[in-house]
Amino acid sequence: MSKIDENQVTNIISDNLGIRFAGSKFKLDGWGEVDNWSQLENGVYLFLEVETSQKHPNTNVLKVWPFMDENKKIKIFLIQTFFPNSPGLTSNRGKLCEWTAAKIKNIHGKRFNYYKLVINDSLTQNDFTKLKILITDFLHK
Is residue 94 within 8 Å of residue 130, measured between CB atoms? Predict the structure, then answer.
């Protein structure tokens, strides 16, 4: 089930943002893997994490931190997606995702950005327009 969800989410984001993903995991030099990724312009990597059953989704944000420390030239925009029934959406560990992302952004500044996207029935084109603007702004920092 998880792999199907990863592919569906990748397609939704790709279709709405016009971004092609690699269709494979990105290895974080021993710190884990990212579900999918795309290399954008200006040395920016767009990482995608799809949270379907993860009870510790904060680790999917946290693992990016040491990878960035070791790779000083890499810039990362992380999209972390949840579904309404994702176990980590409203848990304390889910709240740690945004807290951890804020800490990484505070340390790495213009090299990191994070966006939490909940895939549900109320998701609209406006949500993707906002996300596209954030990514475009990040590319030009």
Answer: no
pTM of the complete model: 0.94
More confident site: 2 or 24: 24
When pLDDT is cut at 50, 70 and 90, the band that residue 4 belongs to is low
**pLDDT tens digit sequence for 115-133:** 999 998 888 899 999 999 9
Length of the chain: 141
**Exposed/middle/buried for residue 104 (C-beta within 10 Å: 0-12, 13-18, 19+):** buried
pLDDT digits (tens, 9 = 90+) for 84-110: 888 888 889 999 999 999 999 999 999
Question: What's the token pair of residue 8?
Answer: 């569906």
Strands 33-34 and 26-27: antiparallel
Angle between helices 2-17 and 125-139 (to 10 degrees): 80
Q: Which domains does the chain have, with CATH numbers?
A: 2-139 (3.40.1350)
- Give yes or no for a contact between 8 and 36, defined as CB atoms under 8 angstroms apart: no
What residue type is 110 in one-letter code? Answer: K
